[in-house]
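pasting for ref
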Amino acid sequence: MGNKVVIVDDAAFIREVLTQILVRSGFEVIGEAVNGDEAVQVVLEKKPDIVLMDIIMPLKSGIQATKEILEKNAKQKIIALSTEDSETMIMRALEAGCCDYIVKPFNREKLIQAINKAVQLEGGAQ
């Protein structure tokens, strides 16, 4: 069985595209969330190997959700996804604890590489 992933994005279309890419690449999507509040709940409950976290969302940003998740589980691997590609936003996401940052629209190969890299980081830390 592949690594378990939770997808967090307020756009249903993006969640569907990500699910298709991940499943075809051998990953298991075990949960989804549409905002930062849901993200914290779903990630802490499901305990995925990787979280794909949209940064700009309603109720609570991906940056806030990332910080909350990492306060409760410092080993959680979170990859930021955003249409925002400013250096400031990238730095904010990385400082919050994201292990990578992918700009939408994303390249499938780059996405899979980032996930595999994050999984290896997790394996090395144990």
